[in-house]
Amino acid sequence: MSETARLIDMLKVSNAQRIPYAQSLDLSLLEDPVVVSTKTGNNHYQVIYQAPGTFSEALQFIADRKPLPPPPNAPLGKDLQTRLNFVIATLNKHTVNTIAKAKMAGRLPALSTSDLPTASPTEASATASPARGSAMLNSIFKSVRVPEFKYRWQFWAEKGQQQPPPKTTSTTAGAEEYANRPKPLGEQIVSVKDFYQHFNNIPVESLKLRDSIHLFHLGVKPLWEDPRNTRGGAWYFRISKEQAAQFWHEICLLAVGDVLQGAVETKRASFNDDICGVSYSVRWNAVQVAIWTRDADNEVGKEKLLQTILEKLSAELQPKKDSYWYKAHKEHKGFAGGE
């Protein structure tokens, strides 16, 4: 703002000094220096001042921060005053617009204060800094509602089974021991946050031979004989131990994300198919990953499920053609269920 005021003063002085030479804004006519007599006390001296001859010179004069020449004694002509007023009004308008834009953009300097009394403890507590680090993350988790899955899930763990379960539907000690072998891990999973809180704490690479981890719909037990599983089967994939952990990760995400469920759903009057769960089982020289379906007779659903899995898996995880197969639960030697 001060620079604009200096420029306006410069225009007034520069044009006023030229009155003897021209009555217009054509500053280029001024070539002679202006001699100004100054009296201070008993001393007289003269100052020779060359006023700017063009508008660009006037701008340069302001940019160099030179002292302003003394104001003229002669009045401005009417025509010159009118034109000069127009220039000054234009500059003032431009300055106001510039300040307004700067305020909107937040580029003006902030208000600074000094010598103010310090805040009282009550005032300080009311204006405390926002939470940072872990406190900030906890605050975000409390305030942001994580979207929930369409279905609820649960992890299960199963220790190695050395022998198949007894093929009987009677309540024997062997059958009970087999039915109680899978143990639930943690709480139900309703969101991606819950999923990774469980998944990241299950070291599948450390499982021993014939140990298994299952991720199933809540309420469905990872047994062939569970009422939701007896009519179903599973796609089995034999995966190298080097790729097994990543393969398992992607299959789990396809399951909780309802990608697998969408592949097997078909409009049938008698029986609708579902994804019951997925399993990770350690074998002698590989890992077996299974995707359980509710209806082993849903041929269209089974083929669509396989194509979906092959399309969604990462390129480096694509299984070989002879490394996967589908098998109904009732075809297993140890199946103890019934229709």
UniProtKB/TrEMBL annotation:
Molecular function as annotated in GO: RNA 7-methylguanosine cap binding; translation initiation factor activity
Keywords from the UniProt entry: Initiation factor, Protein biosynthesis, RNA-binding, Translation regulation
GO cellular component terms given for this protein: eukaryotic translation initiation factor 4F complex
GO terms of biological process kind: regulation of translation
Pfam family, one: IF4E
InterPro entries per the UniProt record, alphabetical: TIF_eIF4e-like, TIF_eIF_4E
Family according to the record: Belongs to the eukaryotic initiation factor 4E family.
Entry protein name: Translation initiation factor eIF4e
